[in-house]
């Protein structure tokens, strides 16, 4: 079994204190920092862009797990790579050509993540699993912090874990949204290794 890793989202941080908030996460034992990027188009809210990530990356040695909830995503991949993203996670619905976007992320020597919304089927990524480093299962609808965890997505986590084992693949399974001390155990039991 893979080591369970914690990737706290800075979406719930005090944005006036982001550098200090990341330092607290680092000191608290977080494995990486989850950066939710929203464009007001793919999802209703706006968050942070490459300049903020670049400034924060200078203050931290932690991995930046950058979740791009932006569309069209392809033309922004390079900017987030240059800003300091270590893992670039995209949504299949946000690109015209998922293969091309995966290849672009790989060409920049970054880890590739693909995110599945609660209603998105695993079938969408089946042909890409050998190229993906991380599958991010959304356990809330993307775009807003503070939503209630949707336990029905655990069926998808279990199915992905089974496919992973049957095919001998090595991608991480991350779950994102409404995760707390109470539901983290069932997410891990289902097969998630990044919370």
Can you give a write-up of this model?
This protein is an alpha/beta fold and 195 residues long. Helices cover 29% and strands 17% of the residues. The chain contains 6 helices and 6 strands. It has a 6-stranded parallel beta sheet. It is globular, with a radius of gyration of 15 Å. The mean pLDDT is 94.
Topology:
Blueprint: H1 18-27, E1 32-38, H2 50-57, E2 63-69, H3 77-83, E3 87-90, H4 98-107, E4 111-116, E5 134-138, H5 154-167, E6 172-176, H6 184-190
Parallel strand pairs: 1-2, 2-3, 3-4, 4-5, 5-6
Short description:
The chain has helices at 18-27, 50-57, 77-83, 98-107, 154-167, 184-190, and strands at residues 32-38, 63-69, 87-90, 111-116, 134-138, 172-176.
How many strands, what sense, and barrel or not for the largest sheet? 6 strands, parallel
In whole angstroms, the N-to-C terminal distance is 15 Å
Helix content: 25-40%
Based on DSSP secondary structure assignment, what is the total number of beta strands? 6
Sequence stretches where pLDDT stays below 50 over 5 or more residues: none
Strand pairing plus helix content: what structural class?
A: alpha/beta
Spell out the helices and strands N to C: HEHEHEHEEHEH
Shape: globular
Strand order of the largest sheet: 1-2-3-4-5-6
* Helix run count: 6
* Rg, Cα atoms, Å: 15 Å
Strand content: 15-25%
Mean pLDDT reading: 94
